[in-house]
């Protein structure tokens, strides 16, 4: 997949010719089943029109520019993960447009002129609620009326699951509640977090359950506190495990609020400090708990491990 970073007004075209494009438009945080429908339509039209399939997404999230947010933005799929998913889907070209205050002030017709017609797009696909241009004045009805037969337009209707719209907002709510199985269902794949294995307090070793302490990448959305069945990817291998997200209340001072992600990897004894890893989240096992002592904690971890082993054996 070819990746091009574009920036208005100085760098609005890629460094090389791409040929005719069938392009999906959207921020696509999560690349869930609703997004996949939009992207799939662009890919199908590319086949029909003998064009290349393309996705245009934006960075950072528009709310950071338009809403004046000062706090960190947490993404379901940080940019690199989003790009990796698009590549796995078989998309030919990805445009990442820098979302700036200048870009946000573009009139809808200017957006179409520069970023649709200017890129050689022969077909545009987007969701029914996609908006563009200054103050979101542009919608897909305007996109169609402005096309004047120069490019085709597909508008994908609301995608539902359980009579509710499949949306990034809905997935975020499930993550806040730790409902990672629902996230798997709405996304068609497990929720993923990438990060680096860092030194922890090594207390897990002393109770027979050594863990990898994962420092997630900046801006990563972390599921709710609790214990989960996960798979960890490291050094081109994948391992089953259980993960605790929380503050380790059995050991720690309740006033110390350092959230940690600790993965106990089954049948694993390598030193992986400093390694890049990805954690796939499959099932929530229980809430984080404070136990009266070490023995009770060890007993519960063993139960958690057995539940995860049984889940992955199905």
Task: Write up this protein.
The chain has about 325 residues and is of the alpha/beta class. It has two domains: about 1-165, 3-Layer(aba) Sandwich (Rossmann fold), CATH 3.40.50; about 180-314, Riboflavin kinase-like (Elongation Factor Tu (Ef-tu), domain 3). It is built from ten helices and 14 strands. It has a six-stranded parallel sheet, sandwiched between helices. Strands 9-10-13-12-11-14 form a six-stranded antiparallel barrel. The chain has a two-stranded antiparallel sheet with strand order 7-8. The longest helix is centred in the last third of the chain and has 20 residues, at about 295-314.
Give the topology, please:
Elements: E1 2-6, E2 21-25, H1 33-49, E3 52-59, H2 62-66, H3 79-89, E4 93-98, H4 101-104, H5 108-115, E5 121-127, H6 140-147, E6 152-156, E7 160-161, E8 164-165, H7 168-176, H8 180-187, E9 191-198, H9 203-206, E10 212-216, E11 226-234, E12 237-246, E13 260-265, E14 276-286, H10 294-313
Parallel strand pairs: 1-4, 2-3, 2-5, 3-4, 5-6
Antiparallel strand pairs: 7-8, 9-10, 9-14, 10-13, 11-12, 11-14, 12-13
Compute the gyration radius: what is it? 22 Å
Classify the secondary structure makeup into a structural class: alpha/beta
Helix content: 25-40%
Give the total of beta strands: 14
Helix-strand sequence: EEHEHHEHHEHEEEHHEHEEEEEH
Strand fraction band? 25-35%
Q: Could you name the CATH topology of the largest domain?
A: Rossmann fold
CATH class of the largest domain: Alpha Beta
Discrete helix count:
10
**Distance from first to last alpha carbon:** 35 Å
